[in-house]
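From the pipeline queue, job 12 of 40. The input is one protein chain; the requested action is below.

Action: predict structure.
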Amino acid sequence: MIKFYDMANTLDPMDLKQIITLHLDGLSNRNVGEALNISRNTVNTYMKLFQSCDYELDELLQMDSAQLRELFPSHTTIINDRYNELMLYFEKVNQARNHPGFTFLYHYNEYKQQVRSPYGYTQFMEHYNRKYAKIKGSMKLEHGAGNEVFIDFAGKKLHIINSETGELLPVEVFVAILPNSQYTYVEACMSQKREDMIACMGNALSFFGGVPKAIVSDNLKSAVTRASKYEPEINRTFKDFALHYNCVINPARSYSPQDKALVENAVQLAYQRIYYPIREMDFFSLGDLNGEISKLLDQYNDLLFQRKEASRKELFQSIERGYLKPLPTSAYQVKDYKRAKVQKIGYVYFSPDKCYYSVPYRYIGTTTLIHYTKSTIEVYYNNERIATHERNPSKGAYITNKDHLSSTHKAFTQWSPDYFKTLAARHGHNVLACIETVLAEYDYPEAAYKRCMGIIQYHRAYGSQRLDNACKVALLAETCSYTRIGNILKRGLDKEYAGCELAFTNRNEPHIPLHQNQRGRENYQ
């Protein structure tokens, strides 16, 4: 296995899958590196490893994270920590460039104090001047059909009215645009939080009827955990969404609005074509607001470009639609995560719903990670899925897969009135009659299960014949309890009263024989 030293951030298995996805889409290694903001040499190295391993690329895509991490454990994105520290520090320097009193020497002295192995001042300035040339130009970006979709939230919000209080509730506006045809999607949602952003993104792809190769997002908190011009850390849920739709995430560079100029322009056009026409309209729900937005959006996409003699919709349908990948068969559901320890009874406690889910009994005592959506619960141990359940919102419920239970626990789950009657019949008809009597005493039969099991278990110490005789005595005395039957067996009364049915048939006759020491009621006046 090839290993690199002096490295920083190890590639996530999701990143490996994104490299494979883009390669299968026909992108060169250079273009893959640019799309994912990683070194071309890193992409080259991984592609060689992919080709030299025993699996096809399609098979690697189907593997889970644990398998990929085992195959490719030690490769990273950044080789030179010292240079990377300098580049990150330059972001701070460049932001302060126009501040009164700014000097490079001040920032160089600050830089020396922050790092262990600083560059000299000459090299500091040389690297800065290479990175930020005095004459900077912009270029017209060419966007291939089906390559990207740009997304952003509008800076200005719309409002809906709370029908009960009359309060104005601000709502966010999500905008997505396919840059080749400039076909646009707009939707209002309650917030920029992860769940709302993911839902809007899924609706946008459904609106387009296909999936591009990459999603270019702004550095939203719901999309990017840690923003960086060089190596942004993408939100885990957003990565999972991209894998579900077979595409990749490529955040725009921080402080580089030119990277997503088209979606910025689409936001401005949304202000003109959607915000302005509904400025005097009142909406009492998101559904009503989005219904009106949909009507205006259709009109907007049908408008002719002045120089192309075609509309956004016509360009999309004639050119770009054919380059989009097909949508997955099911919509993505947002995943959340909870850690939980497997209890001694073989269940994990799921705190959001306050209920319990079974896992294989061999994992008792281990700490697991629960992946959950609105409809499913998945339990993982060391990146391996060990249990899957349908989510049950009932508080205090125990959701059980019988395959997860040990043999002892499986027997416990089979307990029922018929189960105990079948078990009792093996030891005699009197035992069966006694168990039926015990079960009949309770409206809720589960309350009698332990008593029934206790009575039947007496056969282990005394044998089936003695147990059957003891139950016979208990039935005649109408005292079918676990304790009474136990006393009969301990004192040997089952032997003494074997065949004693007549002793109990006539309750009106005294069962004590007559003798001279007997006294009548007159002696107790």
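Job complete. Residues 336-411 form one domain.
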